[in-house]
From TrEMBL:
Biological process according to GO: amino acid biosynthetic process; branched-chain amino acid biosynthetic process
A Pfam family the protein falls into: Aminotran_4
Family, per entry: Belongs to the class-IV pyridoxal-phosphate-dependent aminotransferase family.
Protein's recorded name: Branched-chain-amino-acid transaminase
Transmembrane segments: none
Record organism: Physcomitrium patens
SUPFAM superfamilies in the record: D-aminoacid aminotransferase-like PLP-dependent enzymes
Keywords: Amino-acid biosynthesis, Aminotransferase, Branched-chain amino acid biosynthesis, Pyridoxal phosphate, Transferase
Needed cofactors: pyridoxal 5'-phosphate
Domain of life: Eukaryota
Transferase found in the keyword field: yes
Lineage: Eukaryota, Viridiplantae, Streptophyta, Embryophyta, Bryophyta
Modified residues (N6-(pyridoxal phosphate)lysine): K166
Gene Ontology MF, one: branched-chain-amino-acid transaminase activity
Gene3D superfamilies linked: 3.30.470.10, D-amino Acid Aminotransferase, subunit A, domain 2 (3.20.10.10)
Length: 361
């Protein structure tokens, strides 16, 4: 593990890489009482050439710094921290799997620890550490769709809050809705904010994923539009989210929008057969297809999922899925195509011009 400490009067200590061990905290540590902590989630991949690659790590460092700033946790040199993480990966490179879809998960964590004192106050002492874990593909046998429980009572984020930061306090309140959804056969939750305006509520994100909707618009040309909620302070700026937006805009066969989305629009599109795909995105799952949106009264919006089309794209030769206009005459599966295109970049099959921040270790 990589670790370093910070004190208000001294600043940061020199970072060290040590054997993984437990962390000792005083019972009055602020992190235990007031959840003053933030974290990141990122992955390192081993390519076909044997090189290790971090996927857009500068975006993780930017988000980590933003989360820390929101909680008055100490700022850090983002470039230096990233270099320290690379050194940790060099030491542990034998743990990085070399099969496609496998990776090593990287978890940086910054917490507020303090002298024996109870009370809410700005950070005086902090600890930063980074741990690693090898992980396999989310779905070893291919893309498997799940159902989302539509949560309209309990909120994940609210205007002026911390929905755009990656802090522990955003995740604990999602556990009860998650449990309620599990009882209805759902694996994740789609949060819909009741903001007092008509339209059935404002569609947000899932417990641990940004969410995308492929809608065929009304009109003579029946234009395809890939929609995800905008970064309005309620939505976590996901690195996979941003990558999906970049790739999809390069495909050239659909309109790609970041805009407010009311739940009534989804219901109307589903009723008319115009809701063609729904999927979530995140570091852990990458691209997660959805086959149903389940309400509290157990009514369900059924979402199409074309498994054959998804498998077709996953089986494409490396480097072909991300080419503009390459889908003419091929089956429609945006989530399948995006998964193949992301794997190509992460494992070094292609040098993507879209992601110039993908870095070798």
């Amino acid at each position: 593990m990589l670790q370093a400490s910070w004190r208000e009067e001294l600043g940061w200590t020199a970072p060290s890489i040590d054997p993984l061990s437990s962390v000792s905290l005083h019972p009055c540590a602020q992190v235990l009482h007031y959840a003053v902590q933030c974290f990141e989630g990122m992955k390192c991949y081993k390519g076909k050439d044997g090189r290790l690659r971090l996927f857009r790590p500068d975006m993780n460092m930017d988000r980590f710094a933003h989360s820390a700033d929101r909680l008055t946790l100490p700022q850090f040199d983002k470039v230096e921290l990233l270099e320290c993480i690379k050194e940790l990966l060099r030491i542990e490179r034998d743990w990085v799997p070399d099969e496609e879809g496998f990776s090593i998960y990287i978890r940086p964590l910054l917490i507020f620890v303090t002298h024996p004192f109870l009370g809410v106050c700005p950070t005086r002492e902090a600890m930063l550490f980074v741990i690693l874990s090898p992980v396999g593909p989310y779905f070893p046998s291919g893309l498997k769709p799940i159902k989302l429980y539509v949560e309209t009572q309990n909120g994940r984020a609210f205007p002026g809050g911390v929905g755009d930061t990656k802090i522990g306090g955003n995740y604990a309140p999602t556990l009860l809705p998650q449990l309620n959804g599990t009882q209805l056969g759902c694996s994740q939750v789609l949060f819909v904010l009741q903001d007092g305006n008509p339209g059935g509520g404002l569609v947000g994100e899932s417990s641990s994923m940004n969410v995308f909707f492929l809608i065929q618009q009304d009109g003579e040309n029946r234009e395809l539009e890939l929609v995800t909620p905008p970064l309005d302070g309620l939505i976590l700026p996901g690195i996979t989210r941003d990558s999906v937006l970049t790739l999809a805009r390069g495909f050239g066969n659909m309109k790609v929008s970041e805009r407010p989305l009311r739940f009534n629009e989804l219901e109307g599109a589903a009723e008319n057969g115009r809701l063609l795909e729904v999927f979530g995105t995140g570091t852990a799952c990458m691209v997660q297809p959805v086959m149903g949106l389940v309400m509290k009264d157990q009514t369900e919006i059924v979402v199409p999922f074309n498994n054959e089309a998804a498998e077709y794209w996953l089986a494409k030769p490396p480097g072909t899925a991300g080419l503009p206009h390459s889908s003419a005459g091929e089956p429609l599966s945006v989530c399948g195509r995006l998964t193949r295109a992301l794997l190509d970049v992460q494992h070094g099959h292609v040098d993507s011009k879209c992601f110039d921040s993908t870095q070798a270790v």
